[in-house]
Design goal:
Layout (H helix, E strand, L loop, with lengths): L2 E2 L9 E5 L5 E2 L5 E5 L7 E5 L2 E7 L2 E3 L4 E7 L3 E2 L3 E4 L4 E3 L14 E3 L1
Parallel strand pairs: 3-10
Antiparallel strand pairs: 1-2, 2-4, 4-7, 5-6, 5-8, 8-9, 8-10, 11-12
Length: 109
């Protein structure tokens, strides 16, 4: 499933990541999707603070490590998502967790 990596509030642009893990690694074949609840229009993508595409698609397959965020007209920037190439990683679901929740941990190497 898709997992938003931003919180609710004034900022409505969300950067969704698939697979839905809190620590995202490049070798998972990561897809990013930019969406918001109010506007239609072109998406501007940023990688490591620099504009990557002026008016690009709402979704793309990541092919390089770095920190990504997106911008949609009228709703602002999403929170950033960092894609790593770490060789050993402990992943947890990228959803809010409460005491007593069953949690699946994934150790990848």
């Amino acid at each position: 499933g898709w997992c938003p990596l931003s919180t609710a509030g004034a900022q409505t642009t969300q950067l969704l990541v698939e697979p839905p893990w809190r620590l995202v690694v490049l070798w998972d074949q990561v897809t990013l999707t930019c969406q918001d609840s109010r506007t239609a229009g072109a998406t501007t993508w940023y990688k490591d603070g620099k504009r990557r595409l002026q008016e690009g698609p709402d979704q793309f397959l990541v092919t390089d490590i770095g920190t990504y965020k997106c911008d949609r007209p009228g709703t602002g920037h999403s929170f950033p998502v960092t894609i790593s190439d770490t060789r050993l990683v402990l992943q947890v679901p990228a959803r809010p967790l409460l005491e007593g929740d069953m949690v699946t941990l994934r150790c990848r190497c």
